[in-house]
Amino acid sequence: MSLIHALVARGPVVLAEHQAGKRDFSQATQTILSKIPPNNSKLTYVWEQYLFHYISEGGFTYLAMADESAGRRMPFAFLADLQRKFTSAPSSSSSDETPGHGLQGTFGPTIAALMHTYNTAPPADELTRAQTELNQVKDIMVQNVEQILSRGERIELLVDKTDVMAGQATAFRRGARTVRRQMWWKNSKVLALCFFVGLVFMWMIVAQFCGAGLNHCGTKS
């Protein structure tokens, strides 16, 4: 158990309180209240193995006694929450004339419930909440970096594939030029052969009338 005793007081007058343990700390709390200056302050008193933390503001004192193991962050977060609940409660508006323990029935259960919450599952205070948000941002940044690295690997793989395709395209162009050159030579040979065959065919036709040496046609003329 971290928080043992908590109260709300107007000066030395205790308006409402709650004690979680069986030991009576009324004398100790009255002694602490008598030492608190009237000006706004926030301080911790040491008594035996316990720590008395308090926030004094606007004439009211919010005090909590806790074990040393609780430190200071959690008890002061509890006191800040207790102060917010008290100032927002309707009964606080008339507390200037309230006698000792006059708000015990209306605000005592609020103190008890708040102590139970902080002793069992204390809500994250501002520092812890900021650290949690920082860790979340860090996790998101790590995920983004990992995704960027993963995309970078895929980009490198795509570049490698593009280089391979570019090499294949170059080889294809070279092969196409070679095929065109070979077809050109083949066509040229076919044309030359056709031209030669045509000449031979024309010679054979002319030779039927003029003789093999074409001398008969020259003689007739």
Please write out the topology:
Elements: E1 3-10, E2 13-19, H1 26-35, E3 41-47, E4 50-57, E5 60-67, H2 73-88, H3 104-120, H4 126-210, H5 215-220
Antiparallel strand pairs: 1-2, 1-5, 3-4, 4-5
Helix pairs in contact: 2-3
Radius of gyration: 52 Å
CATH class of the domain at 3-123: Alpha Beta
SSE string, helix = H, strand = E? Answer: EEHEEEHHHH
Number of DSSP strands?
A: 5
Q: How would you sum up the major sheet?
A: 5 strands, antiparallel
Structural class, please? alpha+beta
What would you say the CATH architecture of the domain at 3-123 is? 2-Layer Sandwich
Counting DSSP H or I runs of 4 or more residues, the number of helices is 5
* CATH homology-level superfamily of the domain at 3-123: Longin domain
Beta-strand percentage range = 15-25%
Q: Characteristics of this structure?
A:
Beta-Lactamase; Longin_dom; alpha+beta; 5 strands; 61% helix; Synaptobrevin homolog YKT6; membrane; 221 residues
